[in-house]
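Dear support,

Our group has been running a series of protein-ligand predictions, and this particular one with glycyl-adenosine-5'-phosphate is the one our PI (initials K.S.) wants archived with full inputs and outputs. We had some confusion internally about which version of the output was final, so please treat the block below as the authoritative record. The input we submitted was:
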Amino acid sequence: MSEKAEASVMEKVVALCKRRGFVYPGSEIYGGLSGTWDYGPHGVALKQNIKNLWWKKFVTDREDMFGVDAAILMNQKVWQASGHATGFSDPLVECKKCKRRFRTDQIPDKTKCPECEGVLGEERQFNMMFKTHVGATEGETSVSYLRPETAQGMFVNFKNVRDSFNPRLPFGLAQIGKAFRNEIAPRDFTFRAREFEQMEIEYFVDPRDTKKVTELFDAWFESQLAFLTDLGLSTAKIHKIEVPASDRAHYSKRSIDTEFDFPFGQKELFGLAYRTDYDLKAHTDSSGVDLSYYDEETKERFIPHCIEPTFGVDRLVLAILTDVYTEDTMGDEPRVYLKFKPSIAPIKVAVFPLLKNKPELVAKAREVFTMLKKEFGSVMFDDNGNIGKRYRRQDEIGTPFCITVDFDTIEKDQAVTVRDRDSGKQERVSITELIASLRGKLV
Ligand code: GAP
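Confirmed final output from the archive:
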């Protein structure tokens, strides 16, 4: 695809997201707040479906995983010990003329302002954590930060979970929650935001068996890829990148980034890092609390190592939206539709009466709607405009199936027309068999 075409796909996706209630600019009626986005009803549903699948795959379907939900605000000592207070920064330069600020690694000419061509000042490190104060008095001791990663909430709860559940290695903690970074240059819609959501796992392993550690690391990578298949993402757009030492985070001995072909280029979707004992050791040293593990069999005590699969929810949502956005022609008319895998579609089924002004059709359609809503939850009733328009609206939000109740339903066959989003094909299905028929297809 040409650069222009890629840019226009992005513009169309952003416009569709706003028009159809997936994603809105944050604080829009006040002119917005850079790097913040609000999810509308369909965006929330899509995000929730992704989070539910993730939680099921990585927590409830496994025996070795423990969920936590730690506070976003944490003692500032957490961030001193983790290295974020001193090291979580990006290189920044300021234009001497227009005073705009840029991330040095994102501008082609390090000497000239990309906006006004003015001279750029000295590079300095800019810490990306949002600083705040806890309590009524503002001083050095009241300083706290909005967490820049959910990971630390799990490291500081390692001992709690170990004491409560006494798990044996290997085992992991998992958490889904908000993270905040004061990005110098938020860009590409929700790709680089200042407030976003992460789904992270800290998986603790026995470092004495290095072969097993490598096997587990590789297995986690495969599980991450399998999750993308679960979501229906095009595999041809996914790339595995072994991150060179010079580009790895300060805590990582080995990292694999999974990159995706977004319309604005091949970019990081999520990551996998071998954090070794970096965090548990740092928190043991800093807090004085013993975060080691005692092996009952060998009678040895050691600090476990950690493998961290981390996922950005917003980047997954964006990757999916740009991947499923499809334009084609149906019935000689151009149409836009979102080709979601049914399991993640915000609305699973839409139910229509053929005509709005025929009470008997509306009553029957509502009966079918109530029955399906009870079964599938995300079901919509729509009697606005003609059937063609209703199909187009549902196509644009990616509803896999539309059901129409017509006169034959009442007078002849107690059956409805089920229309498939992708092919437009219609079939007649008896109301008594409708739930079973849809259940098989909504996966
Ligand atoms: N705990 C490790 C960690 O936070 P990271 O690579 O900095 O690692 C993990 O972040 C994931 O969070 C990224 O792969 C990405 O999906 C998401 N992410 C990071 N910064 C983001 C931002 N500014 N906006 C949206 N998502 C972001």
